[in-house]
From TrEMBL:
Keywords on record: Endonuclease, Hydrolase, Nuclease, Nucleotidyltransferase, RNA-directed DNA polymerase, Transferase
Listed SUPFAM superfamilies: DNA/RNA polymerases
Gene Ontology MF terms in the entry: endonuclease activity; hydrolase activity; RNA-directed DNA polymerase activity
CDD domains: RNase_HI_RT_Ty3
Any Pfam family: RT_RNaseH
Protein name: Reverse transcriptase RNase H-like domain-containing protein
Domain Reverse transcriptase RNase H-like per the UniProt entry, residue ranges: 42-141
Length: 325
């Protein structure tokens, strides 16, 4: 029927096949974007195997009956193949949230996974730089993690079925053999690949090295700006007593005035030597700056301008890190 030189013939068998395909296409659920006005929960269903991750997201009353809005699958890199099980399950969550971040940020979502991967990070005392990046990324989402029973979760394994991909029979056989063979028999990952993946993770949180002999207060640079650069209080408006101005302006500030009048109702704020401090999600304390004017300029403007001048033109992120420290 589709070969060159053959006449096109449409028979009763073709009509019957077309009707069957049309009926199947009409009965199967199609992708439907999530509706923010719909009160039903948004579900993100994730799973990981020994060679990759798969996920889907949708909206509905339960994760078993939700209307799908998207699917994704991704294979592990050479370095990710060596990760522990709970880390691979976490990668499945990270990949799904990263792919649909524009659809999920700002909404309450429920993440369904068959492994209590995030509980390991909560009980682990010392997190690696890579794990710290993961926790910081997950903190942007208003989500709750569910761990259903294994029999209920069996349906999601189809996302990770190699037969569902366009693979040759030889490739499928190779994947099955890799799953059965011990870790030692797999192809060895070059050390440079593992080291490169680790350096990418450390770049997010590890401070840059600095030498005390190279850094001076009069000649600050970007290295000391991100670690132990000159304090801003020594450089703001010629080292004037701007902290006294901040203390005096707390009572007149619309927000911090309420905090100062009733500190017990605001546990995230503390009062130290007349200054209000707030604790961030990372556990560090930052100084609260009210609306105040110093020498005809806003004190907030002076702080940001001084920090930007001190470390140079290195972007918003580095300026923010220097101000926080």
């Amino acid at each position: 029927m589709v070969q060159n030189g053959h006449a096109f013939e449409w028979r009763a068998m073709h009509t019957q096949c077309f009707k069957m395909i049309k009926a199947m296409a009409c009965k199967m659920p199609i992708l439907k974007p999530i509706d923010p006005r719909n009160p039903d929960m948004i579900w993100v269903i994730c799973d990981a195997s020994t060679y990759g991750v798969g996920a889907m997201y949708g909206q509905g009353l339960t994760w078993l009956t939700c209307r799908p809005a998207g699917f994704m699958s991704k294979k592990f890199s050479n370095a990710q193949h060596n990760y522990r099980t709970f880390e691979q399950e976490t990668i499945a969550i990270l990949e799904a949230l990263s792919k649909w971040s524009d659809k999920l940020i700002g909404h309450k979502i429920s993440v369904v996974t068959d492994h209590k991967s995030l509980e390991f990070f909560e009980t682990q005392k010392n997190l690696s730089p890579c794990q710290t990046c993961w926790i910081e990324f997950l903190s942007k989402y208003d989500m709750k993690v569910h761990d259903p029973a294994g029999t209920e979760y069996a349906n999601i394994d189809i996302l990770l079925d190699p037969e569902g991909e366009d693979l040759s029979p030889a490739q499928i056989t190779e994947i099955r053999a890799m799953q059965l063979c011990p870790q030692e028999l797999r192809e060895q990952v070059p050390p440079r690949d593992t080291e490169a993946a680790d350096l990418d993770c450390r770049a997010c949180t590890s401070p840059l090295p600095t030498s005390a002999s190279q850094a001076t207060v009069n000649d600050p640079h970007v290295v000391t700006a991100l670690t132990d650069g000159p304090p801003l209080c020594e450089r703001v408006e010629g080292n004037s007593d701007w902290t006294s101005l901040i203390k005096d302006r707390y009572t007149n500030d619309l927000f911090f005035g309420k905090v100062l009048s009733n500190m017990d109702s605001h546990p995230s704020f503390t009062l130290q030597d007349g200054l209000i401090w707030s604790k961030t999600r990372t556990g560090s304390e930052v100084l609260c700056i009210p609306e105040a004017v110093l020498n005809g300029r806003s004190i907030r403007e002076i702080i940001l301008d001084t920090a930007h001048t001190t470390i140079g033109h290195f972007g918003m992120q580095k300026t923010s890190e220097y101000v926080h420290q």
